[in-house]
Design a protein that fits this description.
Order of helices and strands: HHHHHHHEHHEEHEEHEE
CATH class of the largest domain: Alpha Beta
Radius of gyration: 55 Å
Distance between the termini: 123 Å
Strand content: 5-15%
Number of domains: 3
Largest sheet: 5 strands, mixed
Structural class: alpha+beta
Low-confidence stretches: 1-28
CATH topology of the largest domain: Heat Shock Protein 90
Strand order of the largest sheet: 2-4-5-7-6
């Protein structure tokens, strides 16, 4: 039996590995997100140019100091060696003459020693920064001295005459006189370097000052701009303007403050919306029963339900007056709610101003009669383009305010003039206690009630003048308040006669 064995091998496919090389992103410089890091970065960038200028100045001063020290040392060495040349020359001449006179060769040792010293000084002087003339004289000194030395060494002198040292002496004297030249040269070089360094420092400062000013201005803007944005946002919130979203751009700490302010703004918007809805609902809920009370009081006052005696008529008048006052307060709430929600609508038409004012006076006739007020009016016969209902509310609010604060038997003036052909100016003047000076700046704010108490026991909601100002503004006019002498208040209302 043959057994056949075998196997087959299966090769697994090799895994494919793909390597992707992403292109390098260009390095970008971003402003620090932290307020502290921004201040530190600004300080470093502003201080760096000044540090560079100081470093350059320090290096230039150090270089001048080193050069001046070297110049002083070289000048001192040159002056010393120049004097030593003169002294060694005199020593050599003295030793040579003494030798020739006395003939003692031991005296030549002094000459040879002076000769070696002279050569050593010549070598040292050659290492100093000499000018061309000094180098030429130094070569001549060495040559003349060598000639004299060879003459004495070879005993070439005759008749006992000494070598001529006069030429060598003149050269040493001339070299001594010119020893100040390198000092002057170094001083001139240092002065030139000092002027160059001063010019470079001034130029560097002139270039750095605008850069520093630019950096300071830039970082000041980066720091103060978000703070200014926060300040403006707080002003908007304080003034009741909640329509602007708060988005602070800058360091993260200030951005967080901006986010909290925007959260507060949205929360206030939600509360304002809830308040507006509440006012609308409550006003409508109160208006229907109040209308019934007013109509019943009016029927009783007109003897429709039967003849009333004096006390009953007085009670009916009180009910009618207070129901009218309460209805006016509810209408103020409705008007204010319409203004806040942006649902204020105007019906433009042309109407007679005197007719509207007469209608307002008729509504207050009972109150005027009871308090024995004297209404003095003078109005030009003009027509006005506007919403008659809104103008009527304006006049009603101003007249109600004057009646409320006027004492019994006082005068109320309603004076109209035409300051120009296109505008009507109406002044309402009462003889009440006037407005406290502290209240003048807030008199047109919603729900604000001044310190002065009205003559009547009824206090308003603080919305009348706010609604009045809004209606006047929508008509393109303006309203102002002034104290009236000796007492009282004067409101000045200016309205355009024609719609622009």
């Amino acid at each position: 039996m043959k057994i056949k064995t075998g196997y087959t091998s299966t090769r697994l496919p090799s895994p494919v590995i793909t390597i992707r090389i992403m292109p390098a992103q260009p390095a970008t410089w971003r402003l620090p997100h932290s307020f502290l890091k921004l201040i530190l970065a600004g300080f470093i960038l502003v201080a760096l140019p000044l540090i560079l200028a100081l470093a350059y100045s320090a290096i230039a001063i150090d270089k001048l100091s080193v050069q001046s020290e070297q110049a002083v040392h070289q000048a001192e060495e040159l002056a010393h060696d120049s004097h030593m040349l003169v002294e060694q020359n005199m020593d050599m001449e003295h030793s040579a003459r003494t030798y020739l006179i006395l003939g003692d060769k031991s005296l030549l040792e002094g000459y040879f020693h002076a000769h070696q010293q002279f050569e050593s000084i010549i070598t040292d002087l050659g290492t100093l920064p000499l000018n061309a003339g000094q180098k030429k004289m130094l070569v001549a000194l060495s040559s003349d001295e060598q000639a004299i030395y060879q003459s004495i060494r070879n005993k070439s002198t005759t008749n006992g005459s000494a070598p001529d040292f006069s030429g060598l002496f003149r050269l040493t004297q001339q070299f001594l006189e010119t020893s100040d030249a390198p000092v002057e040269h170094e001083i001139s070089a240092m002065q030139a370097m000092s002027r160059q360094a001063r010019t470079m420092v001034f130029g560097l400062l002139s270039a750095l000052i605008p850069i520093v000013i630019f950096l300071v201005s830039g970082f000041s803007y980066l720091i103060t701009h978000p703070i200014r944005q926060i300040h403006e946002a707080i002003n908007h919130i304080g003034q009741g303007d909640l329509s602007h979203a708060i988005n602070i751009r800058g360091p993260k700490e200030l951005k967080q403050i901006g986010e909290r302010l925007d959260w507060m703004r949205q929360h206030l918007l939600a509360l304002e919306a809830q308040k507006t809805i509440f006012l609308q609902q409550m006003s409508h809920e109160l208006k229907t029963p109040l209308t019934s009370i007013r109509e019943g009081a009016d029927l009783m006052n007109e003897n429709v339900l039967g003849v009333l005696n004096e006390k009953q008529r007085h009670v009916a008048q009180i009910m009618l007056t207070n129901s009218m006052e309460l209805q006016k307060r509810i209408e103020d709430l409705l008007n204010y709610s319409a203004i806040q929600t942006g649902k204020l609508s105007f019906v433009w038409q042309t109407f007679a101003v005197q007719k509207t004012l007469d209608a307002v006076l008729r509504e207050h006739a009972l109150t005027i009669l009871n308090r024995k007020l004297n209404i003095r009016q003078s109005l030009p016969d003009v027509t006005l383009d506007g919403d008659e209902q809104k103008i009527r509310i304006i006049m009603d609010n101003l007249l109600s305010n004057a009646i409320k604060y006027s004492p019994p038997g006082a005068n109320i003036d309603l004076q109209g003039t035409l300051p120009d052909p296109d505008h009507l100016q109406l002044e309402i003047v009462d003889e009440g206690p006037g407005i406290d000076p502290a209240d003048v700046a807030h008199i047109f704010e919603p729900f604000y009630q001044g310190r002065t108490k009205p003559e009547s026991h009824i206090r308003g909601t603080g919305l009348g003048l706010s609604i009045t100002q809004e209606y006047v503004r929508e008509h393109g006019g303006k309203i102002e308040v002034y104290p009236h002498q000796p007492h009282g208040t004067r409101f000045v209302l200016t309205l355009p006669l024609h719609r622009s």
